């Protein structure tokens, strides 16, 4: 009985120390999900000769989907659910990213490729939290992760 009491006390003391670890894991998981979605959208746009959109209507923290539009028909290619306890913001508050036939990303349909970034951090924390990650997306599609929400180079 004494051993169980000691283990319970140690577990109660160690519990709060796991919070930053869990937050870092959640942010990193959401960043990897979004990165894989961006790569998927680029490959589909090249395969389908453009018309691919990454749509985060309602905000990036609500999830996103990859769609393909051909003529008057729009089809969902991939749907990603909202990450848990994560706040996400795109640099210019756009809820759609467009991918042209060469796999270049832009913030407007038919627009010129542009660099952009998406910031991910734990809900209720600051953008410079140790767990924060900024995805820096070059116009050509290269994606870099910056720790602690640091500015893109």
From TrEMBL:
InterPro entries: Pilin-like, T2SS_GspH. Signal peptide: none annotated. Residues 30-142 form the General secretion pathway GspH domain. Its main location: membrane. It is a single-pass membrane protein. It is found in: Cell inner membrane. It holds the Pfam family GspH. The keyword Membrane applies. Keywords: Cell inner membrane, Cell membrane, Membrane, Methylation, Transmembrane, Transmembrane helix. GO terms for cellular component: plasma membrane; type II protein secretion system complex. GO terms for biological process: protein secretion by the type II secretion system. Belongs to the GSP H family. This is Type II secretion system protein H. The lineage of its organism: Bacteria, Pseudomonadati, Pseudomonadota, Betaproteobacteria, Burkholderiales.
């Amino acid at each position: 009985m004494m051993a169980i009491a000691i283990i319970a006390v140690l577990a109660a003391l160690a519990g709060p120390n796991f919070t930053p670890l869990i937050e870092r894991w959640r942010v990193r998981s959401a960043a990897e999900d979004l990165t894989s979605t961006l790569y998927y959208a680029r490959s589909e746009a090249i395969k389908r000769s453009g018309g691919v959109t990454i749509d985060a209507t309602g905000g990036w923290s609500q999830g996103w989907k990859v769609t393909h539009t051909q003529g008057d028909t729009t089809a969902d290619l991939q749907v990603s659910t909202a990450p848990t306890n994560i706040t996400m913001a795109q640099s210019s508050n756009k809820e759609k990213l467009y991918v042209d036939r060469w796999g270049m990303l832009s913030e407007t349909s038919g627009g010129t490729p542009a660099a952009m970034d998406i910031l991910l951090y734990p809900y209720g924390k600051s953008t410079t939290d140790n767990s924060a990650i900024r995805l820096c997306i070059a116009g050509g599609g290269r994606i870099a992760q910056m720790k602690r929400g640091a500015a893109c180079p």
